[in-house]
Amino acid sequence: MPYFQSTDDTTLAYEVYGSGAPIVFLAGWSLNTDMWEHQVPYFVERGYRCILLDRRGHGRSDRPADGYDNDTRADDVAALLEHLDIRDAVLIGHSGGGAEAVHYLARHGQDRIRRLVLVAAAVPKLSWSPDHPAGIPQAAIDASIAALCADRAKWMADRAQGYFATHLGNDVSPALIDQEVRRCLSAAPWAAKTMQRAIGDSDLRPDLAEITLPVLLLHGLADQSIPIGPTSHVAVQLLKDAELKEYPAAGHGLYVTHAAQLNADIAEFISA
């Protein structure tokens, strides 16, 4: 696995598969590059070059005490693209990775990216405010983070079935659910808790307004982790050139439960 140094000398890991037009994948909160195991083969077989980043505190990257704020995580994405001199790329982000993608574009510009795909992305804003009435009450966000800090393993286990919306008939084996929980627990606890707070406190509405390239939003209507109401339903209205595709029976783990549909939707969008 190759590594590079980010702007603050943090060592970050990344993976590259295939050749051809580049697709850069940003994993969701607490997850690492392995989450894309249902996407990478599909796109490599279709002639794309897949580039995957383990963010700081996740996967095989360094686990520093700081740098989990929006600016530094966006700078890490920029450092990867500069390290590999990636241009004319498709940028795909899931959950918190979607927030990183949006903030990267607002902070560093769109010169290296031609299209953006947001998968159940935590944008633009989770928390309620008078000008964002679809948001989640701050007390509920604070209670969730407190429960995460008190017993992270239980917090993950309690949400595992809902993550995949198995109550709607999605066929996900217990082994696969256990695997995904283990992947989440592999993140540095400090990184997971600090980044969760950053996601809960963010307001990326100004960032979305600056994005002019084509954007595809994919989101499950049964997503319990990042509800579609305060996020994609709002984001698609703020973006200048965007399309939202809703998956009625999908939860937050749609990259697994709806992998075939998700891959096909992304392929159609990026080949246009």
Automatic annotation (TrEMBL):
Phosphoprotein as UniProt keyword: no
Pfam families (UniProt xref): Abhydrolase_1
Origin: domain of life: Bacteria
Domain AB hydrolase-1 stretches: 22-258
InterPro entries: AB_hydrolase_1 (IPR000073), AB_hydrolase_fold (IPR029058), AB_hydrolase_sf (IPR050266)
Keywords: Hydrolase
Gene Ontology molecular function: hydrolase activity
PANTHER family, alphabetized: AB HYDROLASE SUPERFAMILY PROTEIN YCLE (PTHR43798:SF31), MONOACYLGLYCEROL LIPASE (PTHR43798)
Name of the protein in question: Alpha/beta fold hydrolase
Species assigned in the record: Nocardia jiangxiensis
Lineage of source species: Bacteria, Bacillati, Actinomycetota, Actinomycetes, Mycobacteriales
